[in-house]
Structure formats: structure tokens, C-alpha cells
Amino acid sequence: MKNENILVLDFGGQYNQLIARRVRESHVYCEVHPYTLSIEKIKEMAPKGIIFTGGPNSVYGEGAALCQPELFELGVPILGICYGSQLLAHMLGGKVATAPVSEYGKTEVEIVKKDSPLFKDVKDKTICWMSHTDYIAEAPAGFTVTAQTPVCPVAAMEDASRGLYAVQFHPEVMHTEEGIKMLQGFVYGVCGCKGDWQMTSFVDEAIAQLREKIGDGKVLCALSGGVDSSVAAVLLSKAVGKQLTCVFVDHGLLRKNEGDEVDSVFGPEGPYDLNFVHVDASERFYEKLKGVTDPEKKRKIIGEEFIRVFEAEAKKIGKVDFLVQGTIYPDVIESGLGKSAVIKSHHNVGGLPDYVDFKEIVEPLRLLFKDEVREVGRTLGIPEYLVRRQPFPGPGLGIRIIGEVTPEKIKIVQDADWIYREEVAKAGADKDLGQYFAALTNMRSVGVMGDGRTYDYAIALRAVMTSDFMTAESAKLPWEVLSICASRIVNEVKGVNRVLYDCTGKPPATIEFE
Ligand code: XMP
């Protein structure tokens, strides 16, 4: 069965994925594509509605991203958001101009057309997130103004007869208090979607499709213990059982007890019917990392060594037909305005194709957002602690130790991180955190313990809130939690006499330290 779908056309807005996630949270399948997607492709997809995202341009700017006029002939409802709303106005004969005052942040918007399907059950005055310098000065002929602010005469407009809707603010952003109602007003009220995107049906369909694709072939999965590869592995094991072999390469750079946790779920004692190989390769990695301090070199060494170990294991298994990759939807979406610069060479345990002799890659999660992957994990009965696990980078603690990586330093960062996670979870302070961990700085400083002088390392604690890991805000953890962590870490972890809290956002810092 093909799901009903909404198409998000991306004009380079920073919230493009968020729009799709909000639509999917409303149980309507949604894909993000660059605004240049051809009309033929769009017809093939047969979306029930199209959403234009925001974007950095002005409709009058040089090389402005304009949409294809044929879109308006498809008879498919369109919702324009921010730049997308200005684009609708501009292309259909309205007037876009520089606003006398830029509106940025939470803004009270007055709904003037209360029976608009977008504003069903929305308060007459509602807080919305604005972020614009241009605005719609005049709505095109045929449009009715549906909302306004003191600055924006056209904060929203619609031409219901043509199914065209536009909002200057961002309904997808959490700060727009009733934004989800507005998006649902569009997808349900205007586009007539029913909400047939459910994770339980996704699982059944995915298993059936995997069985058909794989037949009696052999499947290999690099298991990291992270959410994506774990969910992919379980999905495949449900589909093809013992035809699947999972290889878990322990590079010795894992968090405390992580190897045992993976064993208990995927090993012979665990609930799944699969072949599981746990390779303890830590000595190999430590040997290669001896004396290396440059972050990029460390990343490259860990990535390459990982591939070698994996390749050796794959050879033992023999000819493999399919290799599993835990690719998820954010990795697949290509921005409407092109890719951005590479800041770090990310190594993903799934990224191994050149070295292993196989016929085809299977990416069972390539259409899912992270929250959906977690939901699938729950549907498959994977333990909650694995499903809720925060992202952990492929190079592991190797990039949370500044400078040379040694077994002693790994032990320090593992123990400090364990205490930190335990205390944060105990205090219930982990709810809104995207990621939180301890890192080991290469700074040693003077301290005093008992009556003696110490000269030991400083541990840095980091906690960030983020929706996409591209940008992040440092979390304001309760001081009591931080001070308990500081005291436990210096008392319980040998080699540490100072604990620092990283209050930098991303940018300018990155989430990991190296
Ligand atoms: P940064 O440090 O670039 O991290 O702000 C953004 C997100 O990516 C994760 N990360 C990685 N994940 N392989 C991965 O699979 C890597 O090499 C890698 N480096 C960073 C990081 O944990 C954060 O979630």
C-alpha cells in the first residue's frame, strides 16, 4: 500500500526537516526535496499537498530560488511558509517588500479570518515565531488576508478556491504555540489526509519487503550498539533470521559497560535469532593510536582500522549478498541550496562499502527520522535503554579525549562519563537533552586532596539541546546536579582533580571535542 504523502519543497530554510517531522508526527508521510524537483517527479509522487519552506533569499535577490509556475496548475494544495509565503505572493501578482521593521522571535499574531482551515481551534491572538526582513505588502488578487500583526499586514493569506495558503511565521517551530494545529489544519483540513503513517504498519511492510528483496541471500550488518544499527539489525533478523550476521567491532573506545549491553541484547542469551560476532579489537586500535594527537588523524586511523577489522570478519563469513546500512532520512535529504562545508570527517560504522565483497546495500531505515527509528525500535521490542540511547560517534571516546588516546585516559573518561550520566538521569535532567557526556581535556592543573598536592586532569562535562545536531544550545543543567557530579568524579575517578562545564553552543563550538 502506498501511503498518502505531503511534499516539502526546500528553498534552503533552516527548518526544512522540522516541517517534515511535524507532518510525520501527525501520521502523514512526508518527504523533503529540493525546490528544483521536476514537475514529472512531483506528478509521479502524487502528493496530497505541497509545502514551500522558508529560505535565506529575497524573492527580488539575484538568482533567487523561484518555484516552477506549473506547480500552481497541478490542483494540489500549497502552503507557503515564510520565504515560501512571499514566493506565493510574488509569483501570483502580489507585492513583496522590505518590512519597515524586521520581526524576529515570538510575536503575537491576530487571526482575522477565524473560519480558515489553518486556524481551526486557534486562539484569536496567538504567539507565533517570526524571522523575516521582507514581508508581503499586498496579497495577490483572489487572496484573503487571514492573519496580521502590527508590522505585517499579511501575516497569513489564502485563496481557498485554488487551495493556496501562506503564513509569514513558522508553524513548525515549537515557539509557535499553536503551530501543530495549523499544520494539521493544512494536512487534514485542506489536503484531506487521513493519517495512515503508523510505525506498526511500517514494520510489517518493511519486513515483507526485506524478505522479498533478500530471498535466501546472506546479510551482513555492522552493529555499533547505537539506535540506528540496532533497529536495522532487529528488523532484518525478524525478516531473515539466521541469514543475518551482525558483527560488533569493539574498538576499545566505547562507553563503560557498552560492550556487555550489546552482548546481552544481540548475543546468544538475547531474544533474537541471529548470528552475532563480537570482535574485541581494542589492542589493535590502541597500538595504532599510540602517540597520535591530531584530531583528524585520529578519526582517520579509527575509521580505517574499523574497516580492516570488519573486512577480516566479513571474509570469514564468506560471500555476502547484502550489506546493511543504518542510513536515516536526515542523511538522505539534500538541501534545496546544496550541501554545506565539511567540518569533521565523520566516520559512520555503516559506511563500509568499498572494502567488502557484496552485491547490494540495504538501508531499511532510510525513510525515517530519528524519533521514528526509536518508535520502530519500541514496536520491535528493543529494550528502552537501547532505544533511547543518545547518539554516540563512530570514533567513540577517541574524539572525547583531547590529544593522545591511551588505555588509562579511556578508563578515566569512561568512569567520569558513567557517573555523569547516572546523576543526570537520576535527577531526571536528561529529558530535553540531545546529547550529554564527559570528555577528557589535555589540561592538568594543581589541586589539593587531603593534605597533599595533586597535579591531575580536568574533565569537561557537556550537555546540549538540539533538534538536528547541526546547531545546539548548551543546556542549563541544575547546579546541584553539576556539583554532585563534580564531587563524585574527583573523589571516585583516579587522575582527575577538576571538573569544568562547557557552556558553549554550536556554533561556534562543535558538539564533540575533536
Ligand atoms: P559535531 O561534533 O560535529 O557532532 O557537532 C554532531 C553530531 O555528530 C556526531 N558525530 C559523529 N557521528 N561518526 C558518527 O557516527 C562520527 O565520526 C561523528 N563525529 C561526530 C556527534 O556525536 C553529534 O551527535
Give a short synopsis of this structure.
By secondary structure, the protein is an alpha/beta fold. It has helices at residues 16-25, 39-45, 83-91, 179-190, 199-214, 227-240, 258-266, 282-289, 295-317, 329-332, 370-379, 384-387, 407-426, 479-492, and strands at 5-10, 29-34, 49-52, 78-81, 95-111, 125-138, 144-148, 156-159, 164-167, 219-223, 244-250, 275-280, 322-324, 360-362, 435-449, 452-465, 473-474, 496-501.
Keywords for this structure?
single chain; 514 residues; alpha/beta; Rossmann fold; GMP Synthetase, Chain A, domain 3; nine-stranded mixed sheet; five-stranded parallel sheet; 14 helices; 18 strands; 31% helix; binds xanthosine-5'-monophosphate
Describe the structure.
By secondary structure, this protein is of the alpha/beta class. It has three domains: 5-190, 3-Layer(aba) Sandwich (Rossmann fold); 199-387, HUPs (Rossmann fold), CATH 3.40.50.620; 406-502, GMP Synthetase, Chain A, domain 3, CATH 3.30.300.10. The protein is built from 14 helices and 18 strands. It has helices spanning 16-25, 39-45, 83-91, 179-190, 199-214, 227-240, 258-266, 282-289, 295-317, 329-332, 370-379, 384-387, 407-426, 479-492, and strands at 5-10, 29-34, 49-52, 78-81, 95-111, 125-138, 144-148, 156-159, 164-167, 219-223, 244-250, 275-280, 322-324, 360-362, 435-449, 452-465, 473-474, 496-501. The strands form three sheets. It has a nine-stranded mixed sheet, sandwiched between helices. The protein has a five-stranded parallel sheet with strand order 12-11-10-13-14, with helices on both faces. Strand 1, helix 1 (16-25) and strand 2 (29-34) form a beta-alpha-beta unit. Helix 6 (227-240) crosses helix 11 (370-379). It binds xanthosine-5'-monophosphate. Residues 343-344, 346-348, 391, 393-395, 435, 469, 506, 510-512 line the site of xanthosine-5'-monophosphate.
